[in-house]
Design brief:
CATH topology: Rossmann fold
Helix content: 25-40%
Number of helices: 10
Largest sheet: 5 strands, mixed
Strand order of the largest sheet: 12-9-8-13-14
Number of strands: 14
Number of domains: 1
CATH architecture: 3-Layer(aba) Sandwich
Strand content: 15-25%
Order of helices and strands: HEEEHHHHEEEHEHEHHEEEHEEE
């Protein structure tokens, strides 16, 4: 994304972001992927950790730990302000999209960040002991369990957030990010209408190559072609291989990355 931002004006970027990782912690609505994009675009992201806010402290986390509250998800003190603000806006009746827009404006972000949906969708992971949430698997259990299956609970009845399909359909270029195609891009594609929009758009689709991820001898992802196989061979369409760190749609000068 840093390279992309050097060649594309921020106001021309629209990000469509996975919300399958969203969950509740301490009564707050946490949107990890939305927050990461928000922090990158506001130059707040911790470069050392790759998540959270640069130079953040964790005094609240330690205080909550002492009070016997869950402390396995590393929420920093400055990061906490984002979750508090989002939760407050949601309780006022705003949608996740509206809350995200308000936060980005406060932080001076010129780009548009679109959560994939305002409807609850949860990535669920099946391990030998049973089904758990993605955050439980990835953060609390540190992805040590063999994965038997992944599903996106609620995706079949969810609807894309306002502006998501429109961005795809009016695009001039689409680029899939080299993120995890199962847990980051999979939830977006699982929403009704998104795959159809990708087929219907006149924009060329560019997919970055994904790294092979092996856990305890299990190969999780082999190639990005898994995501675009349904479009191969379709007359008149172009699949453009790329080595770029974003999935984006360029629409009349707007570039829309998917995360």
């Amino acid at each position: 994304m840093p390279g992309l931002r050097r060649i594309v004006p921020p106001r021309d970027l629209t990000f469509i972001v996975n919300t399958g990782d969203d969950f509740q912690c301490w009564g707050l609505h946490i949107s990890p992927d939305v927050d990461s994009i928000t922090y990158v675009l506001s130059d707040l992201l911790s470069k050392d950790r790759g998540w959270g806010v640069e130079c953040d402290t964790f005094q609240c986390l330690e205080a909550m730990r002492r009070l016997g509250q869950p402390a396995w998800f590393q929420i920093g003190d400055r990061d906490l302000s984002t979750h508090l603000t989002r939760t407050h806006l949601l309780r006022e009746g705003k949608t996740l999209s509206e809350a995200t827009t308000e936060i980005t404006k406060i932080l001076g972000i010129e780009s548009i960040i679109l959560p994939m949906t305002n409807t609850p969708v949860e990535t669920r992971v099946t391990i030998p002991e049973g089904e758990i949430s993605f955050q439980d698997y990835f953060v609390r259990r540190r992805y040590r369990d063999p994965v038997k299956a992944v599903r996106f609970a609620g995706a079949e009845s969810a609807t894309p957030a306002s502006g998501v399909r429109e961005a795809i359909l009016s695009a001039s270029c689409i680029l899939l990010a080299p993120s995890n195609p199962i847990t980051s891009i999979g939830p977006v594609l699982a929403l009704p209408g998104i795959s159809d929009a990708l087929r219907e758009t006149s924009a060329p689709v560019s997919a970055s190559t994904f790294n092979v991820a092996s856990q305890q001898g299990q190969t999780m992802v082999k190639r990005s072609e898994l995501l675009i196989s349904s479009r191969k061979g379709r007359p008149g369409r172009r699949i453009i291989p790329a080595e770029t760190p974003a999935m984006l749609v360029k629409r009349r000068g707007l570039v829309v990355p998917f995360y």
